[in-house]
Amino acid sequence: MCQKSSPCTYARVRSLPSVRLFSFLALAFASFLRAEDAFDHFREGERLLSLQQAQQAIGPLHKAAQQKPAHPKAALYLGMAYLQTGRYTQAIQWLQNPPVHSQEYAHLYAYNLGNVYFVQHRYEEAQHAYEQALALKHDYPPALLNRANTAMKRQAYAHALADYKKYVSQNPTASQHYEVQRMIAALEQWLQRKEAEEARRKEAEEARRKEAEEARRKEAEEARRKEAEEARRKEAEEARRKEAEFEALKRALRLKQAEDARTLSTGSEDTVPYQEERNLE
């Protein structure tokens, strides 16, 4: 057994840094192996996904995403695999929070998240995701095209037409160029019809408004005419009433004058002889 300060103890003390270094190297090597495994799993999942074998790609891609969370495309491809197999909740889970070091592919995460929302008929959220993808990479045609498709689903046809036109102007040789041009032509015809219908509707509405206004004017005019006629009738009636009162008053005065005259005449016949008799006395 080694004694204190013996060569054995010295050797043990001197060996401790070597042990730590070995442990560090072992951990580093294990991490390297895991990283290599993650890349191997990713390459296998990527290969299967390119062969349209999304279900088989989920396993290796999931391992790659778990073993190397910072891998820029593992979560992206895993989300795409879940999307293609109809497992939308899992797809959203992996696509809505891209790794910090995946800025180069951030627009793809947003774009595929929009695709998940689109197939679920969540068009408002899909539009927001496509707009986010275009904000991250403004010249990304698939996001522009799908934003136009989303606008069609939302019946925002003017916005859809604008995006389709922008898409074909930016991608004149795109494989979908012919179909998009047909959609543009159909939308333009539809919008022209709607504009013409709207113009006719506004014209008819204006005609109805003017007709109603004319009817109200005539009604007001008729009311004023009747009011004036009623005022004239009342005025004439009042004049007749006053005339009748005046005639009645005149008749009353004539009667009184006649009565006074009769009274005066009767009084003279009685008084004169009496006076004469007084004078004779």
TrEMBL record:
Signal as a keyword? Answer: yes
Question: What is the top-level taxon of the source organism?
Answer: Bacteria
Query: Which parts of the sequence are annotated with region: Disordered?
Result: 206-243, 255-281
Q: Which UniProt keywords apply?
A: Signal, TPR repeat
Task: Look up the signal peptide feature and give its range.
Answer: 1-35
Query: Where does each TPR repeat begin and end?
Result: 107-140
According to UniProt, the name of this protein is Uncharacterized protein
Q: What organism is recorded for this protein?
A: Treponema paraluiscuniculi (strain Cuniculi A)
